[in-house]
Recover the amino acids of this structure.
């Protein structure tokens, strides 16, 4: 089933009449219905397979994206042009769904809300709804189901969204656990009740207060949760009736019998079904009680770890004592995954493959013939469907058609019943790819042959010249799975015969020119040679011109990136496509690693415009002397504003914390207006035109600077409190006091007293409160200090804070951004930033955390940075196999390791004391713990050996290396080879004094001898190659995969040496900081270096030049590898985040285009590539939309 569900009026599955103000109800989608006349076959990049359901709101389709991923697509009914409310409703649905973290919910993947058919794309959940599953739940299974639904509600409410229609129909039992779907009538907590008083939902699951006309809040969802859990246990709706009034009466007066529930659920469900919303627990409290297992809603007791369950709930607290919500959600989601329902909803590709498997061998040969005639490729290179006549199809195809009745029609012409099949069926995709170039040729042949037949086989309709040559060449040697029909063969034969006849007619005329031809041969030979030389020179000049143009464009991209990151991406992609120069590659790396992911430009460019970013980061306010405009930064659409300003010169505007008010500073003072209506409110503060004036909201007051004076102004009363300070000022969210430097000023008295200890009194400082007022961050010359506002004690600090950067808290207070010359995001408690600071061309004037990431305003541009990764479970071990085929992690305190997403039992571990090493082919994994090592088969997890070989007492990397020969272990004075499987000792060789060692693909062990400074074969003791001249004792050593090169790290620089010649390859690589890892690309041309300061750098070995900028990571990379073909660099840190960085120009350009989401406009092309014909710099940009 999809992640959407459509409604018409019903109660408990029966159709009823409802009042005009009640748009409620349920229709279960009919699975697998084919498309009907009027349905689209494609929506954007998605191909449709059939209808999942239809109702008053619209239609939900099963679709497939270009990669063949199954999705659900909801398309609005009605005309959004005539009824803009339809489009607005879908925008709200998309906003609601995209704000919710994907814990036990169906994610919204994409949306196109501006086209003639607005649609939303959701992940497809394979499984029945709780109502249609036809079963009940009990015991632990019911508890886990209740926990999963509570997890979804907690994630929904944490995003500021109220679902408003939770019911059994909107809980899908997917293979990976329950999912809550359908945000079609969800609301964010900021939305107000509509003016019509419209009540939406399903009556049997509505909370009592909703029937009383109150707004459905989070407590209403909690009530519905209790009702859904009761339904799951009984298979019956808890509040039923023959008519709507009867259902309402039951909801308002009846209490279901809870004895059917297990003891652990009775308390939470009883509390959830309370008639009074204030008596119901929050979803977060429910989830904590359910995870604890004892059914207690005593949250403080549970968080101290005093519950009756085996779960230590106190571990759900962060360092500052707050509830660790991501960890709580992860625990709840993990509980839900244990009750995943088996999928009985096969995708199109599975159905097609099953049908194909039933064919006899001779019919399997006919299948590609049939399906390749059902598709074609247009002149623009786009895949399209076609409907061939039965006469086009080979004999025996009826047997193939009979095997695919669900997918292909048995009509004339034949057509695909499921248009998405070319994307959904991997086998058909492979056939299409193999014949893709020929499909366009075949389309032209088939069309022309049909026209030739219809026109009476006239010569004028036959191919000739190069068109015929291409067609004959393909028909003779280019075809793979397409056999020409007799009519097509006749057409090509006739065209070839006509060409031969015409050639004979000209032969006599040609003989008359033979003598002249002989006489011209000598001159012709010379001219031909000269022509060839000129052509080669022209090609070379064109390549040089393209390379120069590529380098120029790369420089332009680098210059544009600071102010417009999207333009920087597009220009660097154009540079790479023009010529794969080193400059283009470096610029592309900068584009794809830029933390900026989106940009919005204020359409207003007048010099008298002033701007502000709303505190939630969602909107840009643009004001000129006559009008205020409000723009949605994410969509680029105007969402509000007003006219009627008096025409005065504006100095600044500022929005209140809730976005309802706008302070406008003009050349005569400061006034406040309602942002929605433009109505002036409160009292105006007058200020002389001759002095500087700035304004900002803080703690419900206005901070106004007039000249050198700072005032806290209450615009409601007109009272201004003057603060004798030159420091930055912040007002506590409760409005009772202000902080400036080391002083606290009581409000409204203005009386000063000693403030927070340690704040610099003689330097510039910039304070900021967290949204809940529990923390104060102060930036000064010493860095950033964070205080607990209740105790005034220092609780955190960031020494690497940029001096003068203004702090900005995230809404939950866990992240903090520094806004100065650079924009940097930190997680409180971490020593390093989550991402390297971005340096705008112009210092930002404002910044705010939005759901899509941090946004900052610089001049007239709002730049969105990628969201910070969530705080991860603490890992004490991570490793990538060579080539990246396998990923291993180990969580602190766990007895299991996670290999490629699968948890496997591995025994007990001491914290941070394990070493994990893959064999070169990734088939074996060595786990060293202390003096013991075990080796596992990564495919079966069978233990191949368990040894205590006698390791060196010194901590060293790679002391246990599984190889093609067996397991090599490093001792104090020897290396030992052990058999795998079995663990028998095969040989032991002396260990010289080494700087580092490695194993080749054949299992040969080599090392860099510290005394001879050359690579030696450790099994034979013989040198491999020449001696090297190293300037000092290196800190780290890394071998290339083929052992032909070795990289050595010294203080602040790394060098690469050729192991055969002993010569240094290229120049020094100027790296920063100590290393966690280093790795060569398979071809040896690139070297990647992971520093301990959360950065990653990529180097061109031959040139000794860094490729692109230093890349900031969310955590220091502990393991690096390149994929096969050196196409990508992979990195993973102890946060478990796997980072992928393309390294080829082609892949980099594709990634840059994907991030940009569009191509260069014609105006941009003319500006940056004058004189060149316009073309799409990102040919596949449409594929990346959204």
């Amino acid at each position: 089933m999809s992640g959407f569900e459509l409604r018409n009026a019903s109660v408990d599955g029966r159709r009823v009449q409802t009042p005009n103000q009640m748009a409620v109800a349920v229709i279960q989608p009919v699975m697998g219905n084919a498309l009907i006349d009027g349905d689209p076959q494609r929506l954007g990049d998605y191909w449709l397979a059939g209808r999942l359901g239809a109702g008053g709101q619209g239609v939900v389709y099963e679709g497939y994206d270009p990669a063949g991923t199954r999705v659900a697509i909801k398309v609005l009914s009605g005309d959004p042009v005539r009824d803009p409310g339809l489009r607005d409703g879908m925008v709200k649905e998309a906003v609601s769904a995209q704000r919710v973290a994907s814990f036990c919910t169906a994610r919204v993947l994409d949306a196109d809300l501006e086209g003639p058919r607005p649609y939303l794309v959701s992940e497809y959940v394979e499984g029945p709804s709780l109502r249609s599953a036809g079963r009940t739940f009990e015991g632990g299974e019911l508890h886990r189901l209740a926990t999963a639904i509570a997890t979804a509600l907690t994630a929904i409410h944490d995003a500021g969204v109220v679902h408003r229609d939770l019911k059994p129909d909107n809980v899908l039992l997917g293979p990976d656990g329950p999912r809550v779907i359908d945000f079609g009538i969800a609301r964010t907590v900021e939305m107000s009740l509509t003016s019509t008083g419209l009540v939406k939902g399903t009556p049997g699951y509505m909370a009592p207060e909703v029937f009383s006309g109150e707004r459905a809040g989070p407590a209403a969802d909690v009530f519905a949760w209790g009702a859904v859990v009761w339904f799951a246990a009984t298979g019956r709706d808890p509040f039923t009736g023959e008519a709507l009034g009867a259902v309402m009466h039951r909801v308002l007066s009846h209490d279901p019998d809870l004895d059917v529930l297990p003891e652990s659920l009775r308390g939470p469900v009883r509390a959830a079904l309370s008639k009074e919303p204030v008596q119901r627990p929050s979803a977060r409290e429910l989830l904590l009680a359910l995870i604890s297992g004892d059914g207690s809603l005593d949250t403080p007791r549970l968080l101290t770890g005093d519950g009756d369950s085996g779960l230590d709930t106190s571990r759900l607290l962060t360092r500052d004592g707050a509830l660790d919500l991501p960890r709580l959600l992860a625990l709840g989601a993990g509980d839900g995954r244990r009750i995943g329902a088996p999928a009985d909803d096969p995708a199109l590709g599975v159905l097609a493959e099953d049908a194909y498997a039933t064919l006899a061998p001779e019919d399997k040969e006919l299948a590609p013939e049939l399906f390749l005639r059902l598709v074609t490729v247009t002149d623009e290179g786009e895949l399209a469907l076609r409907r061939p006549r039965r006469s086009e199809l080979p004999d025996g195809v009826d047997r193939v058609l009979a095997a695919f009745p669900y997918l292909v029609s048995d009509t004339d012409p034949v057509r695909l019943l499921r248009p998405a099949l070319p994307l959904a069926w991997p086998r058909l995709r492979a056939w299409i790819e193999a014949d893709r170039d020929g499909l366009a040729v075949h389309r032209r042949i088939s069309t022309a042959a049909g026209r030739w037949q219809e026109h009476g086989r006239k010569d004028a309709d036959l191919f000739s010249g190069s068109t015929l040559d291409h067609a004959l060449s393909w028909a003779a040697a280019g075809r793979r799975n397409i056999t020409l029909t007799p009519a097509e063969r006749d057409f090509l034969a006739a065209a070839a015969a006509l060409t031969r006849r015409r050639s004979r007619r000209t032969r006599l005329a040609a003989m008359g020119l033979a003598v002249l031809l002989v006489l011209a041969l000598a001159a012709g030979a010379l001219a031909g040679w000269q022509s060839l030389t000129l052509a080669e020179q022209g090609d070379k000049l064109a390549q040089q011109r393209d390379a120069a143009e590529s380098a120029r464009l790369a420089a332009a991209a680098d210059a544009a990136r600071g102010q417009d990151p999207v333009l920087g991406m597009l220009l660097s992609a154009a540079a790479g496509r023009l010529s794969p120069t080193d400059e283009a590659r470096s610029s592309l790396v900068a584009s794809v690693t830029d933390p900026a992911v989106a940009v919005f430009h204020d359409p207003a460019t007048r010099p008298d415009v002033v701007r502000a970013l709303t505190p939630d980061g969602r909107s840009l306010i643009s004001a000129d002397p006559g009008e205020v405009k409000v723009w949605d930064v994410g969509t680029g659409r105007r969402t509000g504003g007003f006219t009627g300003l008096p025409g005065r010169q504006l100095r600044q505007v500022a929005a209140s914390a809730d976005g309802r008010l706008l302070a406008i500073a003009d050349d005569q003072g400061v006034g406040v207006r309602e942002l929605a209506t433009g109505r002036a409110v409160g009292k105006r503060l007058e200020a002389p035109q001759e002095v500087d004036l700035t304004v900002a909201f803080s703690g419900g007051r206005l901070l106004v600077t007039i000249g050198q004076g700072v005032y806290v102004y209450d615009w409601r009363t007109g009272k201004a409190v003057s603060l004798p300070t030159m420091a930055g000022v912040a007002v506590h969210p409760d409005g009772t006091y202000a902080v400036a430097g080391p002083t606290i000023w009581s409000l409204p008295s203005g009386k000063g007293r000693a403030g927070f200890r340690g704040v610099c009194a003689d330097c510039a400082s910039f304070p900021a409160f967290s949204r809940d007022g529990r923390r104060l961050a102060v930036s000064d010359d010493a860095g950033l200090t964070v205080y607990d506002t209740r105790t005034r004690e220092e609780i955190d600090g960031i020494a690497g804070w940029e001096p003068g950067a203004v702090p900005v808290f995230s809404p939950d207070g866990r992240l903090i951004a520094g806004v100065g010359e650079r924009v940097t995001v930190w997680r409180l408690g971490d020593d390093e930033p989550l991402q390297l600071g971005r340096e705008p061309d112009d210092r930002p004037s404002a910044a705010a955390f939005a759901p899509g990431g941090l946004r900052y305003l610089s001049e007239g541009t709002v730049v969105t940075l990628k969201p910070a990764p969530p705080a991860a479970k603490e890992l004490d071990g991570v490793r990538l196999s060579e080539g990246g085929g396998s990923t291993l992690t180990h969580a602190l305190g766990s007895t299991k390791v996670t290999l490629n997403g699968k948890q496997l039992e591995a025994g007990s571990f001491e914290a941070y004391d394990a070493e994990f090493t893959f064999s070169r082919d990734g088939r074996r994994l060595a786990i060293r713990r202390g003096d013991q090592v075990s080796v596992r088969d990564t495919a079966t997890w069978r233990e191949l050996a368990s040894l205590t070989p006698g390791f060196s007492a010194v901590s060293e990397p790679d002391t246990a290396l599984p190889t093609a020969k067996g397991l090599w272990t490093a001792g104090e004075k020897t290396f030992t080879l052990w058999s795998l499987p079995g663990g028998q000792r095969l040989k032991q060789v002396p260990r010289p004094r080494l700087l580092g060692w490695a194993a080749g693909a054949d299992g040969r062990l080599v090392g860099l001898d510290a005394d001879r400074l050359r690579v030696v074969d450790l099994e034979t003791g013989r040198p491999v190659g020449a001696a090297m001249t190293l300037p000092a004792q290196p800190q780290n050593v890394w071998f290339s995969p083929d052992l032909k090169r070795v990289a050595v790290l010294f203080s602040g620089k790394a060098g690469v040496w050729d192991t055969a010649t002993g010569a240094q390859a290229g120049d020094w690589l100027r790296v920063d900081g100590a290393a966690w890892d280093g790795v060569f690309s398979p071809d040896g041309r690139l070297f990647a270096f992971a520093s301990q300061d959360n950065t990653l750098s990529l180097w061109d070995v031959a040139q000794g030049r860094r490729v692109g900028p230093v890349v900031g990571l969310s955590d220091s990379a502990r393991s690096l590898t390149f994929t096969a073909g050196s196409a990508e660099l992979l990195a993973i840190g102890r946060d478990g985040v796997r980072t992928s960085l393309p390294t080829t120009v082609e892949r980099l350009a594709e990634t840059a285009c994907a991030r940009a989401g569009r191509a260069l406009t014609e105006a941009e092309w003319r500006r940056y590539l004058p004189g060149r014909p316009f073309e799409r710099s990102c040919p596949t940009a449409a594929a990346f939309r959204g």
The chain has a mean pLDDT of 81. The first strand starts at residue 22 and ends at 24.
